[in-house]
Amino acid sequence: MSSISGSSSTSSKNKPFDWHQAYPSVRSPLFARNIVSTSHPLAAQAGLRIMAQGGNAVDAAIATAACMTLLEPCSNGLGSDAFCILWDGKELHGLNASGTAPAAWTPEYFFKIYGREAKTPPKRGWGGVTVPGAVAGWVALSERFGKLEFAALMQPAIEIAERGYAVPVIVQRKWAMAAEVADLTAQPGFAEAFLPKGRAPAVGENFKFADAARTLRLIAETRGEAFYRGEVAAAVERFARATGGAITAADFAAYQPEWVKPISQDYAGHSLHEIPPNGQGIAALMALGILKHLDLRAHSVDSVAAQHLQIEAMKLAFADIYRYVADPRSMELSSAELLDPTYLAQRARLIQPQRAQDFKCGNPVKGGTIYLTVADESGMMVSFIQSNYMGFGSGLVLPGYGVSLQNRGHCFTLEAGHPNVVAPGKRPFHTIIPAFLTREGRPVMSFGVMGGNMQPQGHMQTLVRMLDYGQNPQAACDAPRWRFNEGLSINVEPHMKPATIEGLRALGHVIGDIHDSYQDFGAGQFIWRLDGGAASPDADAQGYVAASDPRRDGAAVGF
User: Fold this and answer.
1) 332 to each of 26, 277, 323, how far by Cα in Å?
2) Residue 82 sits in which domain range?
3) pLDDT tens sequence across 34-58
4) Does residue 100 have an active-site annotation?
């Protein structure tokens, strides 16, 4: 059950505010010893509240993530997947909490329903729903690294769900756009949950989500057991049977998140760490590995040449990951082979400084998301991301429980022999990727950039600005971005210098016109240790500097 109630934007006798930002707004970096940075201020404040109660960065990250399922439903929900990289004070750990395919899923299952011309599972409905992994990820993080009782971490989200919150500007814009998508709003449960008055809530309108509060209480009371092996899982199976889905309570019960070792790439005296496949983080590592062989610093930061070299490096990386990356159990190549320095040097030699190219995959064989980051004064740093994919995901919302189910199964292929072909219990290719930067084995920055395949592109572009050109995290976050689509097609943000845009066009880049920076150019959150990774006795006491992306409603907050 959800509801919206009036505010000044809908019920006042006065004329409503114009919520369009008529003038540029500048965000300053935040300096503090305990910081939460994410794309909604209320979620960030919830994380600080948990730390003020004695929790650590992991506790705060879990509480923040739970709040974000309510505060930005156009990006994530209780049916999301998640990934995390964290520094526990001594070493890095990676968590893959992406969901798996139902036991019934095979290519033949989809061919029988959608015909043999189908290339992938569908975007909407049950054909895209894999087992949600985020809640299991929260529990796993709490059990291994948390300090407070798990139930306490759910309390801020429960309060928000029950009391409601005023919908902010950018979230409302995406919500309203989704309300116009017929194949989304027609899915069972969607309109009742997210269009309670037959429309998206207005800016400033109070939105309550009592059904989600019910589920959050069950998660809190049972440490997630009710979600995977109890009442919620059973309700999902009944819902699926009634509306044409194949997922079962047994699929939920069989699910477990996986602790993994992050993979890395050295660049400019630092090391970038990403979660290994099935995620696309390896694309950022490959692109940086290619850039190492190009004289990027010979060009100014916003020049045509600097942007062109980065675009071409990113293209080369994407050409390979779309061909080779999948659940690691079915990949033809290992991450090490894709990151082989000799291979990346060969790929770098394909780049022509004076011409854009449409690259194909190489042969390295020898022979739609929320992101948050938290750091505390003990030195613990958390890089966490969760997503429903494609905005509201599958469109399916579990009646009575408020669980919006993601559509990550759409990322599978039905192509026989492809490493990412759908199979029971398999994880699909994934776009959401947290990131972490170290220097000589010491933590430097936890960060991420949301937005589909923009994520590795955003990782690379912001790191290049910080490491090669010395821009501070907020400046690197604010700077104009480009986005590679396919072939020669790219998009650029409107505030990129006109001369740079024209210069890229002259090199053969086909530049489209997109003004939706919310999704198309990503949104980042960054926390940088003020010691810069130095191994000094008082390093933990120096604190952090944080940045929050102006492309979202969010904030970096701290004490």
Assistant:
1) 47, 12, 10
2) 42-257+392-411
3) 999 999 999 999 999 999 999 999 9
4) no
